[in-house]
Amino acid sequence: MAKKFGRRALAALLVYLVLGALLPYVRHREARELPASETWQDERVLYVKTNEEALTWRLRLIESAREELILSTFDFRADEAGGDLLAALGAAADRGVQVRVLVDGGNGQAHFSWEPEVRALAARENVQIRLYNPFDLLRPWSFNPRLHDKYLLADGKAYLLGGRNTNDLFLGEMGPGSSEDRDLLIWREAAEGGTPQALKDYFEGIWDLPCNRAVKGKAAPGLLEQRYQTLRQRRPEGFTETNWRESTLETRGVALICGSPLPENKPPLVWKQLRDRMEKGQDVLIQTPYIICGGEMYRDLADLSQGRSLIIATNAVESGLNPWGCADFLNQKGKILKTGVTVRALAGTHSVHTKSVLIDDDISIVGSYNLDMRSTYLDTEMMVAVDCPALNRQLREEVEAVPSRTFHPDGSVTESPDCPEAGLPLGKRVVYGLLQILTPPFRFLL
Prior knowledge:
Blueprint (H helix, E strand, L loop, with lengths): L1 H21 L21 E5 L2 H14 L3 E6 L6 H15 L3 E7 H7 L4 H7 L4 E6 L18 E4 L3 E5 L20 E5 L6 H14 L5 E2 L8 H12 L9 H4 L1 E2 L3 E5 L10 H11 L3 E5 L3 E2 L2 H11 L3 E7 L7 H16 L3 E5 L9 E4 L3 E5 L3 E2 H5 L4 E6 L1 H12 L3 E4 L5 E3 L10 H13 L8
Parallel strand pairs: 2-3, 3-4, 11-13, 12-17, 13-14
Antiparallel strand pairs: 1-7, 1-9, 2-5, 4-8, 5-6, 6-7, 10-18, 11-15, 14-19, 15-16, 16-18, 19-20
Protein backbone atom coordinates (compact mmCIF):
# COMPACT_ATOMS: atom_id res chain seq x y z
CA MET A 1 0.00 0.00 0.00
CA ALA A 2 2.80 2.39 0.97
CA LYS A 3 4.73 1.62 -2.23
CA LYS A 4 1.61 2.19 -4.32
CA PHE A 5 1.00 5.53 -2.61
CA GLY A 6 4.64 6.48 -3.11
CA ARG A 7 4.49 5.72 -6.83
CA ARG A 8 1.32 7.79 -7.19
CA ALA A 9 2.85 10.67 -5.25
CA LEU A 10 5.94 10.55 -7.44
CA ALA A 11 3.82 10.46 -10.59
CA ALA A 12 1.77 13.41 -9.35
CA LEU A 13 4.96 15.35 -8.59
CA LEU A 14 6.33 14.69 -12.07
CA VAL A 15 3.06 15.82 -13.67
CA TYR A 16 3.12 18.96 -11.53
CA LEU A 17 6.71 19.73 -12.51
CA VAL A 18 6.23 19.10 -16.22
CA LEU A 19 2.92 20.95 -16.55
CA GLY A 20 4.10 23.76 -14.30
CA ALA A 21 7.23 24.23 -16.41
CA LEU A 22 5.46 24.08 -19.78
CA LEU A 23 1.89 25.38 -19.63
CA PRO A 24 2.60 29.04 -18.68
CA TYR A 25 4.66 29.45 -21.87
CA VAL A 26 2.65 27.56 -24.50
CA ARG A 27 0.78 30.68 -25.62
CA HIS A 28 3.08 33.59 -26.33
CA ARG A 29 2.13 37.07 -25.18
CA GLU A 30 1.66 40.02 -27.49
CA ALA A 31 3.45 43.36 -27.27
CA ARG A 32 0.45 45.63 -26.91
CA GLU A 33 2.54 48.74 -26.33
CA LEU A 34 6.22 49.35 -27.02
CA PRO A 35 8.48 51.50 -24.82
CA ALA A 36 8.93 55.03 -26.07
CA SER A 37 11.94 55.32 -28.35
CA GLU A 38 14.93 56.63 -26.46
CA THR A 39 16.60 59.84 -27.55
CA TRP A 40 19.92 59.15 -29.23
CA GLN A 41 22.68 59.98 -26.74
CA ASP A 42 25.94 61.75 -27.50
CA GLU A 43 28.36 58.94 -26.61
CA ARG A 44 31.40 57.22 -28.13
CA VAL A 45 31.97 53.58 -29.10
CA LEU A 46 34.74 50.99 -29.33
CA TYR A 47 34.22 47.70 -31.16
CA VAL A 48 35.69 44.82 -29.13
CA LYS A 49 36.27 42.10 -31.72
CA THR A 50 38.45 39.26 -30.45
CA ASN A 51 38.16 37.18 -27.29
CA GLU A 52 41.59 38.41 -26.22
CA GLU A 53 40.48 42.03 -26.58
CA ALA A 54 37.28 41.22 -24.70
CA LEU A 55 39.20 40.06 -21.63
CA THR A 56 41.63 42.98 -21.84
CA TRP A 57 38.90 45.60 -21.97
CA ARG A 58 36.99 44.00 -19.11
CA LEU A 59 40.11 44.21 -16.98
CA ARG A 60 40.67 47.83 -18.00
CA LEU A 61 37.09 48.75 -17.22
CA ILE A 62 37.27 47.10 -13.80
CA GLU A 63 40.62 48.75 -13.08
CA SER A 64 39.25 52.16 -14.04
CA ALA A 65 36.38 52.04 -11.53
CA ARG A 66 36.58 54.22 -8.45
CA GLU A 67 33.03 54.08 -7.10
CA GLU A 68 30.88 51.29 -8.55
CA LEU A 69 31.00 48.18 -10.74
CA ILE A 70 27.94 46.29 -12.00
CA LEU A 71 28.32 42.98 -13.83
CA SER A 72 25.38 41.01 -15.21
CA THR A 73 25.87 37.78 -17.15
CA PHE A 74 24.19 34.56 -18.20
CA ASP A 75 27.10 32.17 -17.63
CA PHE A 76 29.96 32.98 -15.22
CA ARG A 77 32.56 30.30 -14.51
CA ALA A 78 35.63 30.33 -12.29
CA ASP A 79 37.87 29.04 -15.07
CA GLU A 80 40.98 30.82 -16.37
CA ALA A 81 39.30 33.97 -17.71
CA GLY A 82 36.42 33.95 -15.23
CA GLY A 83 38.82 33.48 -12.33
CA ASP A 84 40.89 36.41 -13.56
CA LEU A 85 37.81 38.64 -13.52
CA LEU A 86 36.85 37.44 -10.03
CA ALA A 87 40.32 38.42 -8.82
CA ALA A 88 40.09 41.84 -10.51
CA LEU A 89 36.66 42.45 -8.96
CA GLY A 90 38.06 41.51 -5.57
CA ALA A 91 40.89 44.00 -5.94
CA ALA A 92 38.39 46.70 -6.92
CA ALA A 93 36.34 45.97 -3.81
CA ASP A 94 39.49 46.16 -1.67
CA ARG A 95 40.13 49.70 -2.91
CA GLY A 96 36.58 50.74 -1.94
CA VAL A 97 34.60 50.15 -5.13
CA GLN A 98 31.04 48.90 -4.59
CA VAL A 99 30.74 45.67 -6.60
CA ARG A 100 27.48 43.96 -7.54
CA VAL A 101 27.33 40.79 -9.65
CA LEU A 102 24.14 39.24 -11.03
CA VAL A 103 24.26 35.79 -12.65
CA ASP A 104 21.50 33.67 -14.14
CA GLY A 105 20.25 31.31 -11.46
CA GLY A 106 20.26 28.15 -13.57
CA ASN A 107 23.90 28.50 -14.60
CA GLY A 108 24.78 29.97 -11.22
CA GLN A 109 23.49 26.93 -9.35
CA ALA A 110 25.24 24.54 -11.74
CA HIS A 111 28.78 25.93 -11.82
CA PHE A 112 29.23 29.29 -10.14
CA SER A 113 27.90 29.86 -6.63
CA TRP A 114 29.77 26.95 -5.00
CA GLU A 115 33.22 27.82 -6.42
CA PRO A 116 35.79 28.85 -3.74
CA GLU A 117 36.79 31.98 -5.70
CA VAL A 118 33.16 33.08 -5.93
CA ARG A 119 32.56 32.49 -2.23
CA ALA A 120 35.77 34.38 -1.44
CA LEU A 121 34.59 37.36 -3.48
CA ALA A 122 31.13 37.28 -1.90
CA ALA A 123 32.71 37.37 1.58
CA ARG A 124 34.39 40.69 0.88
CA GLU A 125 33.18 44.02 2.15
CA ASN A 126 31.70 46.11 -0.67
CA VAL A 127 30.62 43.00 -2.66
CA GLN A 128 27.15 41.56 -3.28
CA ILE A 129 26.49 38.58 -5.56
CA ARG A 130 23.01 37.37 -6.46
CA LEU A 131 21.50 34.67 -8.66
CA TYR A 132 18.55 35.61 -10.86
CA ASN A 133 15.55 33.31 -10.50
CA PRO A 134 17.34 30.09 -9.42
CA PHE A 135 15.48 26.82 -9.99
CA ASP A 136 12.81 26.13 -7.36
CA LEU A 137 11.03 22.75 -7.41
CA LEU A 138 8.06 24.29 -5.65
CA ARG A 139 7.73 26.79 -8.50
CA PRO A 140 8.32 24.84 -11.73
CA TRP A 141 7.20 27.83 -13.80
CA SER A 142 10.47 29.43 -12.64
CA PHE A 143 12.53 26.92 -14.66
CA ASN A 144 12.30 28.60 -18.06
CA PRO A 145 12.75 32.40 -17.76
CA ARG A 146 16.49 33.09 -17.68
CA LEU A 147 18.77 36.11 -17.30
CA HIS A 148 20.49 36.49 -20.68
CA ASP A 149 21.84 40.07 -20.39
CA LYS A 150 25.61 40.50 -20.62
CA TYR A 151 27.13 43.81 -19.57
CA LEU A 152 29.75 45.40 -17.31
CA LEU A 153 29.19 49.00 -16.14
CA ALA A 154 31.83 51.15 -14.41
CA ASP A 155 31.09 54.34 -12.46
CA GLY A 156 28.03 55.17 -14.58
CA LYS A 157 30.25 56.39 -17.44
CA ALA A 158 31.46 53.41 -19.48
CA TYR A 159 30.11 49.93 -20.14
CA LEU A 160 30.70 46.82 -22.23
CA LEU A 161 27.60 45.18 -23.69
CA GLY A 162 27.35 42.28 -26.11
CA GLY A 163 26.86 38.55 -26.47
CA ARG A 164 29.85 37.16 -24.58
CA ASN A 165 29.46 35.04 -21.47
CA THR A 166 32.05 35.29 -18.70
CA ASN A 167 34.19 32.22 -19.24
CA ASP A 168 37.00 30.74 -21.34
CA LEU A 169 34.79 30.00 -24.35
CA PHE A 170 34.35 33.75 -24.95
CA LEU A 171 37.26 35.49 -23.20
CA GLY A 172 41.02 35.18 -23.55
CA GLU A 173 42.82 32.72 -25.80
CA MET A 174 40.82 31.03 -28.56
CA GLY A 175 40.61 27.27 -28.12
CA PRO A 176 39.05 24.57 -30.32
CA GLY A 177 35.65 25.00 -28.63
CA SER A 178 35.74 28.80 -28.38
CA SER A 179 33.07 30.93 -30.03
CA GLU A 180 33.45 34.19 -31.93
CA ASP A 181 31.39 37.07 -30.61
CA ARG A 182 31.37 40.84 -30.28
CA ASP A 183 30.98 43.54 -27.63
CA LEU A 184 30.60 47.28 -27.86
CA LEU A 185 32.23 49.53 -25.30
CA ILE A 186 30.23 52.72 -24.81
CA TRP A 187 31.82 55.73 -23.12
CA ARG A 188 30.04 58.91 -22.09
CA GLU A 189 32.15 62.00 -21.54
CA ALA A 190 29.39 63.87 -19.74
CA ALA A 191 29.30 63.35 -15.99
CA GLU A 192 25.92 61.64 -15.78
CA GLY A 193 22.82 60.53 -17.67
CA GLY A 194 22.64 58.92 -21.10
CA THR A 195 22.66 55.21 -21.76
CA PRO A 196 24.96 54.39 -18.78
CA GLN A 197 22.28 55.80 -16.48
CA ALA A 198 19.55 53.96 -18.42
CA LEU A 199 21.53 50.74 -18.07
CA LYS A 200 21.94 51.26 -14.34
CA ASP A 201 18.23 52.01 -13.94
CA TYR A 202 17.43 48.75 -15.74
CA PHE A 203 19.83 46.86 -13.47
CA GLU A 204 18.31 48.36 -10.31
CA GLY A 205 14.90 47.17 -11.49
CA ILE A 206 16.12 43.59 -11.80
CA TRP A 207 18.53 43.50 -8.84
CA ASP A 208 15.84 43.68 -6.14
CA LEU A 209 13.35 41.24 -7.66
CA PRO A 210 12.06 38.80 -5.01
CA CYS A 211 13.04 35.83 -7.20
CA ASN A 212 16.75 36.57 -6.71
CA ARG A 213 18.92 34.82 -4.13
CA ALA A 214 22.17 36.02 -2.52
CA VAL A 215 25.36 33.97 -2.80
CA LYS A 216 26.85 33.36 0.63
CA GLY A 217 30.47 34.25 1.16
CA LYS A 218 33.23 32.17 2.70
CA ALA A 219 36.50 33.87 3.47
CA ALA A 220 39.61 32.42 1.82
CA PRO A 221 42.52 34.72 2.77
CA GLY A 222 45.00 35.21 -0.04
CA LEU A 223 43.09 33.22 -2.68
CA LEU A 224 42.04 36.16 -4.86
CA GLU A 225 44.90 38.42 -3.81
CA GLN A 226 47.54 36.00 -5.08
CA ARG A 227 45.70 35.49 -8.33
CA TYR A 228 45.38 39.25 -8.83
CA GLN A 229 49.13 39.81 -8.44
CA THR A 230 49.88 37.03 -10.89
CA LEU A 231 47.25 38.41 -13.28
CA ARG A 232 48.92 41.83 -13.37
CA GLN A 233 52.15 40.16 -14.43
CA ARG A 234 50.53 37.85 -17.01
CA ARG A 235 48.27 40.47 -18.60
CA PRO A 236 49.86 43.91 -18.17
CA GLU A 237 47.81 45.17 -21.15
CA GLY A 238 44.71 44.93 -18.93
CA PHE A 239 46.12 47.42 -16.44
CA THR A 240 47.44 50.22 -18.63
CA GLU A 241 45.89 53.65 -18.16
CA THR A 242 43.18 54.24 -20.76
CA ASN A 243 42.49 57.42 -22.69
CA TRP A 244 38.80 56.81 -23.32
CA ARG A 245 38.38 59.54 -25.92
CA GLU A 246 41.32 58.40 -28.02
CA SER A 247 40.29 54.74 -27.72
CA THR A 248 36.73 55.28 -28.97
CA LEU A 249 34.98 56.41 -32.17
CA GLU A 250 32.65 59.37 -32.45
CA THR A 251 29.01 58.44 -33.05
CA ARG A 252 25.88 60.28 -34.13
CA GLY A 253 24.06 58.73 -31.19
CA VAL A 254 23.63 55.68 -28.94
CA ALA A 255 20.39 54.14 -27.59
CA LEU A 256 19.50 51.11 -25.45
CA ILE A 257 16.93 48.44 -26.33
CA CYS A 258 15.66 46.21 -23.52
CA GLY A 259 12.75 43.97 -22.60
CA SER A 260 10.97 43.01 -19.41
CA PRO A 261 13.20 41.94 -16.49
CA LEU A 262 10.46 39.83 -14.88
CA PRO A 263 10.76 36.00 -14.82
CA GLU A 264 7.56 35.29 -16.72
CA ASN A 265 6.05 34.72 -20.14
CA LYS A 266 7.13 38.04 -21.64
CA PRO A 267 5.75 40.23 -24.42
CA PRO A 268 8.22 40.38 -27.36
CA LEU A 269 9.43 43.89 -26.59
CA VAL A 270 13.01 43.53 -27.85
CA TRP A 271 11.99 41.84 -31.11
CA LYS A 272 9.30 44.45 -31.82
CA GLN A 273 11.72 47.31 -31.15
CA LEU A 274 14.23 45.70 -33.51
CA ARG A 275 11.50 45.16 -36.11
CA ASP A 276 10.47 48.82 -35.92
CA ARG A 277 14.07 49.95 -36.44
CA MET A 278 14.53 47.54 -39.36
CA GLU A 279 11.38 48.91 -41.00
CA LYS A 280 13.13 52.27 -41.30
CA GLY A 281 15.96 50.82 -43.40
CA GLN A 282 16.38 49.32 -46.86
CA ASP A 283 19.41 47.05 -46.37
CA VAL A 284 19.20 44.85 -43.26
CA LEU A 285 21.63 42.18 -42.08
CA ILE A 286 20.70 40.12 -39.01
CA GLN A 287 23.43 37.97 -37.46
CA THR A 288 22.35 35.26 -35.01
CA PRO A 289 23.84 31.93 -33.88
CA TYR A 290 20.65 30.11 -34.91
CA ILE A 291 17.10 30.80 -36.13
CA ILE A 292 14.08 29.44 -34.21
CA CYS A 293 11.00 31.49 -35.10
CA GLY A 294 7.37 31.28 -34.07
CA GLY A 295 4.35 32.36 -36.11
CA GLU A 296 4.48 36.02 -35.11
CA MET A 297 8.18 36.23 -35.94
CA TYR A 298 7.68 34.56 -39.33
CA ARG A 299 4.94 37.08 -40.17
CA ASP A 300 7.20 39.97 -39.19
CA LEU A 301 10.06 38.60 -41.31
CA ALA A 302 7.70 38.27 -44.29
CA ASP A 303 6.59 41.88 -43.84
CA LEU A 304 10.18 43.09 -43.49
CA SER A 305 11.21 41.24 -46.66
CA GLN A 306 8.83 43.30 -48.76
CA GLY A 307 10.66 46.12 -50.52
CA ARG A 308 14.03 45.73 -48.79
CA SER A 309 17.07 43.47 -48.71
CA LEU A 310 16.88 41.23 -45.65
CA ILE A 311 19.70 38.75 -45.00
CA ILE A 312 20.09 36.52 -41.95
CA ALA A 313 23.64 35.31 -41.31
CA THR A 314 23.77 32.26 -39.05
CA ASN A 315 25.97 29.24 -38.40
CA ALA A 316 25.96 26.46 -40.96
CA VAL A 317 24.64 23.30 -39.33
CA GLU A 318 28.10 21.73 -39.48
CA SER A 319 29.57 24.73 -37.61
CA GLY A 320 26.87 25.48 -35.04
CA LEU A 321 27.29 24.51 -31.40
CA ASN A 322 23.57 24.50 -30.52
CA PRO A 323 22.17 21.10 -31.61
CA TRP A 324 18.56 22.23 -31.09
CA GLY A 325 19.10 25.26 -33.30
CA CYS A 326 20.78 23.19 -36.00
CA ALA A 327 18.04 20.55 -35.97
CA ASP A 328 15.34 23.20 -36.09
CA PHE A 329 16.98 24.85 -39.11
CA LEU A 330 16.93 21.52 -40.93
CA ASN A 331 13.21 21.27 -40.15
CA GLN A 332 12.31 24.88 -40.82
CA LYS A 333 14.62 26.00 -43.64
CA GLY A 334 11.83 25.99 -46.23
CA LYS A 335 9.53 27.99 -43.98
CA ILE A 336 12.27 30.52 -43.26
CA LEU A 337 13.02 31.06 -46.95
CA LYS A 338 9.30 31.30 -47.74
CA THR A 339 9.22 34.59 -45.80
CA GLY A 340 11.46 36.10 -48.50
CA VAL A 341 14.65 36.37 -46.44
CA THR A 342 18.04 35.23 -47.70
CA VAL A 343 19.99 32.99 -45.30
CA ARG A 344 23.77 33.07 -45.30
CA ALA A 345 25.12 29.96 -43.53
CA LEU A 346 28.54 30.81 -42.08
CA ALA A 347 31.09 27.99 -42.25
CA GLY A 348 34.14 29.51 -40.57
CA THR A 349 36.69 27.88 -38.28
CA HIS A 350 34.77 28.72 -35.09
CA SER A 351 31.07 28.83 -34.31
CA VAL A 352 29.72 32.38 -34.34
CA HIS A 353 27.86 33.46 -31.20
CA THR A 354 27.27 37.02 -32.43
CA LYS A 355 23.88 38.71 -32.11
CA SER A 356 23.56 41.91 -34.12
CA VAL A 357 21.40 43.84 -36.59
CA LEU A 358 22.99 46.12 -39.19
CA ILE A 359 20.66 48.61 -40.89
CA ASP A 360 21.77 50.44 -44.04
CA ASP A 361 25.25 51.92 -43.75
CA ASP A 362 24.95 53.61 -40.38
CA ILE A 363 22.99 51.78 -37.65
CA SER A 364 24.59 48.86 -35.76
CA ILE A 365 22.70 47.05 -32.99
CA VAL A 366 24.66 44.59 -30.83
CA GLY A 367 23.76 42.63 -27.71
CA SER A 368 22.40 39.39 -26.28
CA TYR A 369 19.23 38.81 -28.35
CA ASN A 370 19.15 35.62 -30.47
CA LEU A 371 16.59 35.28 -33.26
CA ASP A 372 14.70 32.59 -31.36
CA MET A 373 11.55 32.25 -29.27
CA ARG A 374 13.49 31.98 -26.02
CA SER A 375 15.07 35.40 -26.46
CA THR A 376 11.78 36.79 -27.74
CA TYR A 377 9.38 35.56 -25.06
CA LEU A 378 11.29 34.05 -22.12
CA ASP A 379 14.67 35.58 -21.33
CA THR A 380 15.86 39.01 -20.31
CA GLU A 381 17.67 40.65 -23.23
CA MET A 382 19.62 43.85 -23.82
CA MET A 383 20.86 45.47 -27.07
CA VAL A 384 22.65 48.74 -27.77
CA ALA A 385 22.05 50.67 -31.01
CA VAL A 386 24.82 52.90 -32.39
CA ASP A 387 24.63 55.36 -35.28
CA CYS A 388 28.18 55.21 -36.63
CA PRO A 389 28.97 54.50 -40.32
CA ALA A 390 32.57 53.48 -39.53
CA LEU A 391 31.39 50.83 -37.05
CA ASN A 392 28.68 49.58 -39.43
CA ARG A 393 31.18 49.22 -42.26
CA GLN A 394 33.58 47.25 -40.06
CA LEU A 395 30.90 44.84 -38.89
CA ARG A 396 29.55 44.25 -42.42
CA GLU A 397 33.03 43.56 -43.78
CA GLU A 398 33.62 41.07 -40.99
CA VAL A 399 30.50 39.06 -41.90
CA GLU A 400 31.38 39.16 -45.62
CA ALA A 401 34.83 37.72 -44.88
CA VAL A 402 33.47 34.45 -43.39
CA PRO A 403 33.18 31.50 -45.83
CA SER A 404 29.47 30.97 -46.43
CA ARG A 405 26.75 29.07 -48.24
CA THR A 406 23.80 31.30 -49.21
CA PHE A 407 20.22 30.01 -49.47
CA HIS A 408 18.00 32.25 -51.61
CA PRO A 409 14.19 32.52 -51.38
CA ASP A 410 13.84 30.99 -54.86
CA GLY A 411 15.51 27.79 -53.64
CA SER A 412 18.89 28.36 -55.28
CA VAL A 413 22.15 28.04 -53.35
CA THR A 414 25.43 29.89 -53.92
CA GLU A 415 28.76 29.45 -52.16
CA SER A 416 31.69 31.73 -51.54
CA PRO A 417 34.90 30.54 -53.27
CA ASP A 418 36.47 29.50 -49.96
CA CYS A 419 33.41 27.73 -48.53
CA PRO A 420 34.23 24.19 -47.34
CA GLU A 421 32.19 21.30 -48.67
CA ALA A 422 28.97 20.76 -46.73
CA GLY A 423 28.74 17.58 -44.71
CA LEU A 424 27.91 16.30 -41.25
CA PRO A 425 29.80 13.55 -39.41
CA LEU A 426 27.76 10.48 -38.55
CA GLY A 427 27.37 11.44 -34.89
CA LYS A 428 25.84 14.82 -35.71
CA ARG A 429 23.58 13.30 -38.34
CA VAL A 430 22.19 10.91 -35.75
CA VAL A 431 21.75 13.56 -33.05
CA TYR A 432 20.17 16.10 -35.39
CA GLY A 433 17.90 13.45 -36.84
CA LEU A 434 16.60 12.51 -33.41
CA LEU A 435 16.13 16.15 -32.40
CA GLN A 436 14.25 16.87 -35.62
CA ILE A 437 11.70 14.30 -34.46
CA LEU A 438 11.65 14.99 -30.71
CA THR A 439 11.81 18.78 -30.35
CA PRO A 440 8.96 20.21 -32.50
CA PRO A 441 6.37 19.97 -29.68
CA PHE A 442 8.70 21.99 -27.44
CA ARG A 443 9.90 24.59 -29.96
CA PHE A 444 8.21 27.37 -27.99
CA LEU A 445 10.89 26.92 -25.30
CA LEU A 446 13.87 27.06 -27.70
